[in-house]
Amino acid sequence: MISLVPVSSFAAAHADGAFVLDVREPEEYLAGHVPGARLVPLATVSDALRDLPVSQPIYVICQSGSRSQIAAQHLNRAGRDARSVIGGTSGWISAGRPIVRGRHANSA
Q: Which of 4, 29, 63, 78 is 20 to 30 A (C-alpha) from 91?
């Protein structure tokens, strides 16, 4: 079973330096993403496994929460502690949280 995390809990984890994995497509990411989020499109998550943390939670985010649930499920089966952010980037923005535009995974 995947852990579903509300934006408020994700925001607290993000403020503490959580690892954020954005599984949207590159053009979506460039249009606006959570500061510090690493882009790994859903179709390439399996290829990126070796580069993802094993000893800390991975907060997976997409646009609305659907793709992040698929990715989190896959990551959990691969032995990672993956958590899907409910509402995704849309929920993050609606909550008034900052985004970064462009290709940089900037930290807030």
A: 78
Question: What's the mean pLDDT when you consider all of the chain?
Answer: 94
Q: What is the pLDDT of residues 31-53, one digit of tens each?
A: 999 999 999 999 999 999 999 99
104 occurs within a structural domain = no
Within a domain: 101: no
Domain housing 78: 3-94
Active site residues: 62
Domain count, the chain: 1
How far apart are alpha carbons 100 and 19 in whole angstroms?
A: 16
Task: Indicate the length of the chain as a whole number.
Answer: 108
Report pTM: 0.94
Identify the CATH number of the domain in which residue 68 sits. Answer: 3.40.250.10
